[in-house]
Write a structure and sequence with these properties.
- With 295 residues, this protein is mainly alpha-helical.
- It folds into 3 domains: 2-75, Orthogonal Bundle (Helix Hairpins); 106-180, Tetratricopeptide repeat domain (Serine Threonine Protein Phosphatase 5, Tetratricopeptide repeat, Alpha Horseshoe); 198-294, Serine Threonine Protein Phosphatase 5, Tetratricopeptide repeat, CATH 1.25.40.
- The chain is 77% helix and 0% strand.
- The chain has helices spanning 2-11, 17-21, 29-43, 57-74, 77-87, 93-121, 127-144, 148-161, 166-196, 200-213, 218-230, 234-247, 252-264, 268-281, 286-294.
Length: 295
Amino acid sequence: MQNELQQLEARGDRLTHYELLGVSADADGGTIRRAYLEKSKRFHPDAWYRKETGRFGPLLSKWFQRLSSAYQILSDEESRAAYDSDHRTELSQTDRAALDRRELSRAEEERRARERRERMLRTKGFARIGAARKLYEEGQEYALNGERTQAIFALKAARELDPNRKEIVTKLVELEREQSRARANSALASGREREERRRFAEAITAYAAAFQNDPGSFAAAMGAARCAMESSDARAATIWASRAVELNPEDAGARMMLSRLFLSAGMKARARTELGALLSKNPDHKEAKALLRTL
């Protein structure tokens, strides 16, 4: 185990999520889940409870967290697609070829599934109820393997065949909400990665996509505001900072950012208003008090 941890440390950030889990880039959801369960049992803190791990203790915790993060990304189709797109050049030649195979295979599977759904939708009479049940079970199987989009298509067809079956509607609503959250989280993670690489224009696009899928995302609004400031786009930064303040009026960082943006635009009265709101909640905020004195 010590050797394995040392090898992981040696490769560090050059290790892809697929390599960490020990799966090919064309692995399906079931394979990824089994690989994660097998590895997580070995890395989980409970497996080393009351054992002398010494300097390897923090490494066990670190790589268990990375393992969990890799699984979280690869087990969700939106997050996995974004990861594949962002990290394609970092994948090995073998994994890039596997990725190409998976994309071709998925396109073919989706075509066949679409044709099958269309045939089932033409079912007549009482047979429609049986067809709806089959599509519902198919949707459940897709969802279990992390193929949410295909699950939603199957459930929509099932609902059309049997609109009165509540469990179909309930599962469909649940998956559509999960899809929206997953897309928001995927775009948010993409935005953060691009921001770290100082690709601010791309980061703003990703943060905006996250906000579109989750209009309550304070992190997306703040991320877009920061990147707009780095891009010297004061107007966009002000719009995003204002949204962040609306979402979380208690956040001192958002208030300070908006105050400075108003001040740089010559809008001193609005800057005073934001600083006053901040100080009413946090009267000892030194930066806010110092800025207010300059006004």
